[in-house]
Amino acid sequence: FQREIGERAPRTQALREEAARHLVAPTHFDRFVLPSAFPLAVAQAKGSRLRDLDGNEYVDLSGGYGPHILGYAHPAVVAAIQEAAARGAVNAVGNPDEVRLAGLIAAAFGPEHKVVLSNSGTEAVQIALRIARARTGRQRVAKFEGHYHGFSDQGLVSSWFRYRGDPRAPEPVGNSAGMQDAVVAQTLVLQYGEEDSLRRIAAHAHELACVVLEPMPSALGDFDPAFLRRLAAVCAEAGVLVVYDEVVTGFRVHYGGVQHLAGTAPDLTCLGKIIGGGLPAGAVVGRAEVIDTARTSGDPFRDVDSRAFAGGTMSGNSVTAAAGAATLLELRDRPQIYSRLRDRTAWLVEDLTAQAGDCGVPCRVKGRDSVFSVAFDHATPRLVRDRLAGLDVTATLAFAYHMRRYGVHLPELHTMMLSAAHSDADLEQVSEAFGKSVREMLST
Ligand code: PMP
C-alpha cells in the first residue's frame, strides 16, 4: 500500500507525514479509529467528487459523515457563505441568519416548536439531556447499545467498540479512556427493538430523566416504527422524556427526520450536520413547553435552580446559520431530492447485493434513504454487539482500498451517504468499482 500511495499520491503522502508531526487524532487523514489504508487530502470538492492534492479524482461516498446532502460547493450555499462573510461574520450578538435558520428548523418539526442552536451534534445531545434532567429532576439517562451520540462522556457509554453484560440487560461501559465512572454508572443501557427494553424503562421510571436513541440506528440501516411508537407510549406513561438523536438522519431521510416517516415524535430532537450546510452546527428542537426549560427567566440568580443553561460563543454565528438556512431552503423547495435519493439508494443496495451474490462474497449491503453500508460477514445479526463480533476489519479496510483504486472514496467504518449531486454515471462507477474490488479481494 505504501508504495502505491507514494506513486499515485506523493503530495498527499508528504502532507500526511507533515500532519503526523503537528496534528493529534482525529486528523481525518487516519480516520477516527483506524489508520487509513489510503489517506486522502482534498484540494477541491465539487458536487459528488473530490480531487486530491495529486490530481486524482474520486466519487465521494462519505458525504463528510453527513452534512453534504446537496453535494460539495452547491452554488446556493457558497453564495450564502460568501454574502454572510462579506457582511461581517458575527457571533455572540443577534443576527437575522440565526433567526431564519431556527424558523426553518422549527417549522419542519411542527407548530409551537422552538430551537436551541449549538456548534455540533455532540453539544446538541448534551443540551437535550440537560434539559431532560432539569425538567424531570431525575439524573439517570437510558440509551441503546451501539448508538453513538457524540464524544461527551454520556454519549460514549456502550456506544461502539466495547459492550458488556447480558445482551438482554447490558451493563454500561465506557468507550474511551478518561471517561467519568460516575457518568457511566448513571446510564441504563437498552437494546433497540426489544420488548425487554420497554419493561426496563418502566421499572426504572422513577429515576430516569430521558431515553436517548438514534431512531434509525446507523448500525441497523433501517428503523422499527412499531418499536418507536411503543417506546413513546411507555415513556409518556412513565414521565420519561424521549430524545431522538437525528444528527445524521435529520433532513437526510426526509425534510425533518425519521420521526416524519415513523409517525411518532419525541419530546426533543437533536440535529447537526445538514443544518450547518457544511459548517460546524448543531441544534435541539422541541415543543416550546419542553425546550423553554433552556430559556432564561431574566433573573440569573433564579436561573441557576431552574434553567438548563446552554451557551456557546459561536452558536448561531451568522456564517454557519446562513449556510444552514440556504441548505434547508433548497431541500424544502425541491422535495424531489428525497424521492430521487430514496430510489438511487434502493438501486445501489440491490445492485451491490446482486453482484456480491454472483461472486459468492459474504457481504451484506443495507440501507435506505441515502444512508447505506457494506459489511463483510455472513450472518444477519440482530444486536449491534453481534454485528461487531462478526466484523471483518481487514476486509473492510481492503474494500475501501480497492474502491479508491477504482476512483471511489469510502468512509471505511462509517456509513456511506449519497448526495443530490450523485449522477447516474457516478452510480455506475460505484457499481463497476464494487464488482472489480470484490473480485480482487477474492483473488488475494
Ligand atoms: N449523533 C450521531 C448519531 C452521530 O452520528 C454523530 C456524529 N457522527 C453525533 C451525534 C455527533 O455529532 P458531531 O460529530 O457533530 O459532534
Automatic annotation (TrEMBL):
<dbReference type="GO" id="GO:0005524">
    <property type="term" value="F:ATP binding"/>
</dbReference>
<keyword id="KW-0808">Transferase</keyword>
<protein>
    <submittedName>
        <fullName>Aminotransferase class III-fold pyridoxal phosphate-dependent enzyme</fullName>
    </submittedName>
</protein>
<dbReference type="GO" id="GO:0004672">
    <property type="term" value="F:protein kinase activity"/>
</dbReference>
<dbReference type="GO" id="GO:0030170">
    <property type="term" value="F:pyridoxal phosphate binding"/>
</dbReference>
<keyword id="KW-0032">Aminotransferase</keyword>
<keyword id="KW-0663">Pyridoxal phosphate</keyword>
<dbReference type="GO" id="GO:0008483">
    <property type="term" value="F:transaminase activity"/>
</dbReference>
